[in-house]
Automatic annotation (TrEMBL):
<feature type="domain" description="Glycosyltransferase 2-like">
    <location>
        <begin position="3"/>
        <end position="69"/>
    </location>
</feature>
<keyword id="KW-0808">Transferase</keyword>
<protein>
    <submittedName>
        <fullName>Glycosyltransferase</fullName>
    </submittedName>
</protein>
<dbReference type="InterPro" id="IPR001173">
    <property type="entry name" value="Glyco_trans_2-like"/>
</dbReference>
<dbReference type="Pfam" id="PF00535">
    <property type="entry name" value="Glycos_transf_2"/>
</dbReference>
<dbReference type="GO" id="GO:0016758">
    <property type="term" value="F:hexosyltransferase activity"/>
</dbReference>
<dbReference type="InterPro" id="IPR029044">
    <property type="entry name" value="Nucleotide-diphossugar_trans"/>
</dbReference>
Length: 300
């Protein structure tokens, strides 16, 4: 099968259209699965004809060694049959689980029956938008507590230059939020999940802003926001409005994150300025301590 380059979402949609099997898995070219994956899925199928199967995964380097940094949330029960809403609650509110694109298999019939396709206009976030949209349909999900997929983290992917296209995830998830919001009433349990989608988007927007500012010496806040506005007109103002629309956080976050969220709602630019100065001060202190420790090391 060949097709013109149209991004990962376009390729996945084409693959889904051409697929013949009972289940489909979406993998990037760099990533790989355990040799026992198919065997484990057959075993899981004998337990339940689920709409979705998910399992644990590891983040590894190019040599296959597990990185010290990993997603902290993992499946623990051998075979746990849950509905999609419960899985999404564990992901977004309870923060007990994370399902990666390559750590799930979807029933092709279920996807086709509900017209599920990837949104092709986004550079990032299209994978989460697809996954969470599927889970909001409340499919039967069988969780397998084995590591069966490997996400390869390459050094080149940890860029130190600002890439404003990475902020595509926010409009992708905001679209999911708005479309699903039209379908439910405010008193439904799903309403809380949708707010959690919004909260996740805001916190990760701030995390990406922090990462970009910390790793770019040439982009102080004013220039950064100017560049963001050029690439995503109105995005920063949208995030501020969304944050101020939330009066009570429903997702499990640390006290520090709650303080960050409150400060951002109160004065976004002042908050970013304070954070950047504190971040640089901490970095300078770490460098000083490292130098002092090195100078004190005795020579033999």
């Amino acid at each position: 099968m060949t097709k013109e380059n149209g991004g990962p979402s376009s390729a996945r949609n084409r693959g889904l259209k051409e697929a013949q099997g009972q289940y489909v898995i979406f993998l990037d070219g760099d990533d790989y699965v355990a040799p026992i994956l198919v065997e484990e899925l057959k075993k899981a199928l004998s337990i339940a004809q689920a709409d979705v199967f998910c399992w644990n995964f590891l983040v590894v380097d190019e040599s296959g060694s597990a990185l010290s940094w990993q997603f902290p949330w993992r499946l623990t029960d051998s075979y746990d049959l849950l509905d999609g809403i419960a899985i999404l609650r564990k992901i977004l509110i309870e923060k007990q689980l994370w399902v990666w694109t390559g750590s799930a298999a979807y029933s092709r019939h279920f996807l086709s029956q509900n017209d599920f396709l990837y949104a092709e206009k986004y550079y990032t976030g299209e994978d989460l938008e697809f996954e969470w949209r599927v889970l909001l349909k409340n499919p039967k999900v069988l969780a397998i507590s084995k590591t069966l997929s490997y996400y390869v983290q390459r050094p080149a992917s940890l860029t130190k230059t600002i890439n404003f296209r990475q902020f595509d995830f926010y409009p992708a998830l905001k679209q999911l939020y708005e479309k699903q919001k039209e379908l439910i009433s405010d008193d439904e349990p799903t309403s809380e999940l949708l707010q959690a989608v919004l909260e996740w988007s805001i916190f990760n927007f701030l995390g990406l802003v922090f990462f970009q500012l910390r790793n770019s010496k040439k982009s102080p806040i004013k220039e950064f926001l100017k560049g963001l506005e050029q690439h995503h007109p109105g995005l920063f103002q949208m995030v501020v409005r969304d944050a101020r629309s939330i009066t009570r956080l429903v997702s499990k976050v640390t006290k520090k994150d709650r303080v960050y969220f409150s400060l951002f709602r109160f004065s976004p630019r002042v908050f970013l300025t304070i954070w950047l100065h504190l971040s640089r001060l901490k970095a300078a202190c770490r460098r000083l301590i490292k130098k002092l420790m090195r100078d004190k090391t005795p020579e033999y």
